[in-house]
Write a structure and sequence with these properties.
heterodimer; A: 284 residues; alpha+beta; Proliferating Cell Nuclear Antigen; 2 domains; 9-stranded antiparallel sheet; 5-stranded antiparallel sheet; 20% helix; elongated; B: 277 residues; mainly beta; DNA_clamp_sf (chain B)
């Protein structure tokens, strides 16, 4: 098992560290899966983390100038590590002005992702800062847990309003209630609702637009037969939604939400080479 | 679609309708009295009076005149109800309470009468939020019987000059002692804390002293924990009037200028802590 990569471009480095920071806001621990083409950050929906799951996909070629890896075996050419994104994020933040950053899988006192940054220097002596971020290697027999989640058979898919606006609203609602109902229809309307003994609040967004999802025939026919005014709704833990909205740092070019009525909210952020999916289970 | 046209039809059933182009004009002034959850609202054709009390020793009132609102319709002489102020403030700031110029939250506040919720319609950038805040039986605010004819001493100061003593006030002191006198030290704020005593003196001819009308030497103590919430009003205000009456009751009146340059008042009444010989 071997991995080494090198980031030279400042923009790539910034972008990479923003992605990791976003992930660190969403979860304390996650799994980093490395294949010859992709990097995946995965959180599988366990009860311990509130049933939330996450799937973040990056094309390595868009970040790394050099990327060499050798998986556990020729047929399973992958590396699967458990990482604390917060630690990676902190290491990357301190090396933002580096000339080059090398990321390596090393064996020190424990397995580590070693981040070695070459900092700019005026003299001929080079300055290198090294961070060792401890990781856990996940054995082959547990990999099945970290496969890409299938697209749920949603009732409604809708584009999200500007995340900043949505974040403001959700932050205030969090002060008032622990649970929030998110509902949307095929007419481009989405409502966020809370209700407590003291107050009920509903925020109405309209003209959001519904993504076409033309490829999938079965979903297409179903959504065409659906009443455009009919709302699909899910009641979720506000904290989960709040965490997702902190992911604004990625400046997504598209943000979407799929709702399976009373089952799950599936949120997607797309930003050129990065896609982030987040699943929040509905609560009764 | 602007809120005003959208909801015109429903207006007849409301006893109180108040609209504002900028919700910050009301949320800011309510923040100045937000030290307890329960707020008593009393609306008259002159405007809105919001009262918050603590321990029957402290009362804060915010006055928002009818002219501050773009629309203020009231169908009874007096409409009273009580709501949770913290909830109301969260609702008023649902869009984040932005201070970006040119962006503001429009507000329409409606109340149907006894037993109905207070309904807020808020709009910013085409997004509409509807809040229904449950109302409670209004309590009768305490009458502190603070009457201007019984005022012994009065000074009006620029708020700026009080911000420092209030923000740096020694919180280990249990009381704030206010001395007002026609002779030196004229106007003195004192604390008695663990690290020692501190006095702030304001000469009567100081630039920050806009009015000085003290007839008799008076020294009164007020619980610092009770006065601390008034710092919020101080921070927002441009002038403050400090008055004490013959019983040693304290009245603090703050003149607050809102985003649109209009003037509102916030008033704090506080009972003295004990007699000082």
């Amino acid at each position: 098992m071997k991995f080494r990569g090198k980031i030279v471009d400042v923009a790539c480095l910034n972008h990479f560290s923003r992605v990791i920071t976003t992930i660190s806001k969403l979860t304390k621990m996650c799994v980093l899966r490395m294949t010859p083409v992709h990097l995946f950050f995965v959180l599988s929906g366990k009860v311990a983390n509130g049933g939330v799951s996450m799937w973040c996909e990056l094309l390595q070629a868009n970040f790394f100038d050099e990327y060499q890896m050798e998986g556990v075996s020729a047929e399973d050419n992958e590396i699967c590590l458990e990482v604390t994104p917060e630690n990676l994020s902190r290491a990357l933040k301190t090396v933002q002005n580096a000339v080059a950053v090398k990321v390596k899988l090393t064996k020190k006192h424990c397995p580590c992702l070693t981040i070695a940054a070459e900092l700019p220097t005026l003299s001929s002596i080079s300055r290198v800062v090294t961070h060792d971020v401890p990781v856990d290697v996940i054995p082959r027999k547990l990999w099945y847990e970290f496969k890409e989640p299938s697209m749920p058979d949603f009732d409604v898919s809708i584009y999200l309003p500007p995340l900043k606006t949505m974040k403001n609203v959700v932050d205030r609602m969090k002060n008032l209630s622990n649970f929030l109902v998110i509902e949307a229809n095929l007419n481009g309307e989405m409502n966020l609702k809370i209700e407590t003994d003291l107050v009920s609040v509903t925020t109405h967004f309209k003209d959001l637009g519904n993504p076409p999802w033309g490829g999938d025939a079965s979903q297409d026919s179903e959504s065409q037969s659906r009443d455009p005014e009919a709302m699909a709704e899910a009641r979720v833990d506000i904290r989960r939604l709040q965490q997702f909205l902190m992911g604004q740092q990625v400046n997504p070019s598209k943000a979407m939400c799929n709702i399976v009525h009373q089952r799950v909210v599936h949120l997607i952020l797309l930003h050129e080479d990065v896609s982030l999916q987040y699943f929040i289970p509905a609560v009764a | 679609m602007p809120l005003s046209t959208q909801l015109q039809g429903d207006d007849e059933q409301y006893v109180l309708v108040a609209s504002l182009d900028n919700a910050r004009n009301i949320s800011n002034i309510l923040k100045a009295i937000a030290f307890k959850d329960h707020a008593i609202f009393n609306a008259t054709p002159n405007g809105l009076r919001v009262t918050v009390e603590d321990s029957k020793c402290l009362q804060a009132n915010a006055f928002i005149q009818a002219e501050i609102f773009q629309e203020f319709t009231i169908r009874e002489d007096l409409v009273g109800f009580q709501v949770n102020l913290t909830v109301l403030l969260d609702c008023l700031n649902i869009f984040g309470g932005t201070t970006v110029p040119g962006v503001s939250t429009a507000l329409r506040m409606c109340y149907k009468g006894y037993g109905y919720p207070l309904t807020l319609f808020l709009e910013e950038g085409g997004v509409v939020t509807v809040c229904k805040i449950n109302t409670e039986e209004p309590e009768e605010p305490i009458d502190f019987e603070f009457c201007s004819t019984n005022v012994i001493n009065k000074v009006i100061l620029q708020s700026e000059s009080l911000k420092e003593p209030f923000s740096e006030m020694d919180m280990t002191s249990e009381v704030l002692q206010i001395t007002m006198s026609p002779s030196p030290p004229y106007f003195r704020l004192s604390t008695f804390g663990m690290a020692g005593n501190a006095h702030y003196d304001y000469p009567k001819d100081s630039d920050v002293m806009e009015l000085f009308r003290c007839t008799k030497t008076q020294t009164n103590r007020y619980k610092i924990s009770l006065l601390k919430p008034s710092t919020k009003a101080l921070a927002l205000s441009c002038k403050v009037s400090v008055r004490t009456d013959s019983r040693g009751f304290l009245s603090l009146q703050y003149l607050v200028r809102n985003d649109d340059g209009q003037i509102c008042f916030v008033e704090y009444y506080c009972c003295p802590d004990e007699e000082v010989e």
